[in-house]
Design a protein that fits this description.
The chain is of the alpha/beta class and 352 residues long. Helices cover 33% and strands 12% of the residues. The protein has ten helices and nine strands.
């Protein structure tokens, strides 16, 4: 972002979360904000610093991220919350869900403050405002996974006169497409060699198509407390998703999130058949998963062994294999190499 927007005359600031390294690869103007509270005064000062100079400001909130202790959880009655069908319904889960939603509401307030700040600066009509969520929550099946609740990000864009208010699009796009989109919006030329490509025409309503496929990866090595590899790769088109669990012989390791609901699932599974089935599905996975996202948006029915979908599975597998070769991804070996690099990094820099 910095390297491609700065030559176009932009200053690029970053406020908030900074889990990036090495620093020289991310030469933002750092505005602070390592704790939960964002310094909105610093953001306002950066926006209004020089109105003759275009700017790009990344406001990276810490919410919603565990521990879920921001916002007003009393706004959500745990007993009245609806839960997704893959969740084990325990009182602890409902309490955690309420706290999670409180942080989402807190985040919504932060987004509102930034929008108001932009309005008051007088630059909102000439600014592309883009909100993106990160990976899904750390409830089982979300973060650390490649199910849609773990990788599908919310995207809300506002650009008066350019983007039609209230318009929507189902076009497939990926995080790698963000920088090329910003470059085009800033008047720059397409950059050769990037994995991403601009979806500005989707935002402006000129098309409702962007990608035929999107890809995602997950690795467990590096997650605190994880001792064995569990690599996952996936590809999806508009309707189907193929997931390849590289280490399906292992128990899925990212099951001890720092939330009380995790242990409550284990306890209920001892006496409740439904809870046991849901917990087992989370911990023990087949090598291949295929889902019809149109008819099964929660990805509950694995149709990988269904003869009717043999061609679909073969097509998606071919696309994923091709993409992995392009990326230099060797699958299991890449996962193991990641573990070696992590160990070396900890030896040199310590663990945080």
């Amino acid at each position: 972002m910095v390297h491609f927007l700065r030559p176009l005359g932009y200053r690029i600031g970053l406020l908030g979360k900074t889990m990036i390294a090495p620093a020289d690869s991310f030469p933002f103007d750092y505005l602070g904000g390592k704790g939960d509270a964002l310094d909105f005064k610093a953001a306002q000062k950066y926006i209004e610093k020089d109105k003759s100079e275009p700017f790009c400001l990344v406001v990276a909130s810490h919410q919603p991220h565990g521990p879920w202790d921001q916002g007003d959880a009393s706004l959500y009655d745990p007993k009245k919350l609806s839960l997704p069908p893959y969740i084990v319904d325990t009182p602890e889960t409902r309490e955690e869900r309420a706290r999670y939603l409180a942080e989402v509401t807190y985040l919504d307030g932060e987004v509102g403050r930034v929008m108001k700040m932009l309005e008051e600066s007088g630059q909102s009509k000439n600014t592309l405002f883009l909100f993106l969520s990160e990976q899904g929550s750390s409830f089982p099946g979300g973060k650390y996974n490649l199910y849609d609740v773990g990788i599908r990000a919310a995207a809300i864009a506002r650009w008066p006169g350019k983007i039609k208010a209230g318009s929507e699009s189902d076009a497939l796009a990926s995080y790698v497409d963000i920088v090329p989109t910003f470059v085009e919006a800033a008047g720059g030329k397409p950059i050769q060699g990037l994995d991403g490509r601009s979806f500005l025409n989707v935002l402006t309503g000129k098309t409702n198509q962007h990608r035929d496929y999107v890809f995602a990866v997950a690795t467990s090595l590096g997650v605190k407390g994880v001792t064995h590899p569990y690599g996952i790769r996936c590809v999806r088109d508009e309707r189907f998703k193929y997931i390849w669990n590289l280490n399906s012989e292992n128990i899925f390791p990212c099951s001890r999130a720092a939330h009380s609901h995790t242990s409550s699932w284990v306890q209920m599974a001892k006496t409740n058949v439904v809870a046991r089935e849901r917990l087992d599905r989370f911990l023990h996975r087949p090598e291949v998963e295929l889902y019809d996202l149109k008819n099964d948006p929660w990805e509950q029915k694995n149709i990988a062994s269904d003869p009717k979908h043999r061609d679909t599975l073969a097509r998606l597998r071919k696309e994923l294999d091709s993409w992995m070769r392009e990326q230099g991804d060797l699958g299991v070996q890449t996962e193991l190499d990641a573990g070696k690099r992590l160990k070396k990094y900890i030896q040199e820099h310590g663990e945080n």
